[in-house]
Amino acid sequence: MMNGIAMMTRLLTITLLMASFMASHAEDVPPDFSDPESRSRYYDMIEEIRCLVCQNQNLADSNAELAQDLRNVIREKIEAGQTDKEIVQFLTDRYGDFVLYRPPLRDNTLVLWAGPFVILLLALFLLIRTISKRNAANADARPLTEETRKRIEAILRDDDGGENS
After folding, report:
1. Which residues, 6 or more positions from 75, have their beta carbon under 8 angstroms from its beta carbon?
2. Domains in the chain, please, with CATH?
């Protein structure tokens, strides 16, 4: 009797684990829009909206729960007749400009747009400064005296003479 209960418990546990695994890996069912324009708008939008969980993926490529929720929101808003601009406005009001792959140029996104150029200019400035200092250090070097030049030539002649013999 005890063996039968243990077997049933194991079977139930395995069944629940498999069901939860399958549910977590379930594919999003693509929306069935009545007109091709709505379908096209939907796919264009989910390609342009960033997944807030994955951050380097768009909604179309992400399997995160939030991405699925956002795809559903976009689908519902398209079906409700909202424009792309209204949908984007809703998403940015709720999640900020970070949700967009191409955020608009505003005061709070200026760093995103100008940052790479500022870093490049700073790197060029540092490179030029380093080269200038190196050239200035080389220019300040004292020239060889005649005596030192003769000693170097003598050493070089001795080395050449020993190798040729």
Report:
1. 31, 42
2. 31-104 (1.10.8.640), 109-164 (no CATH)
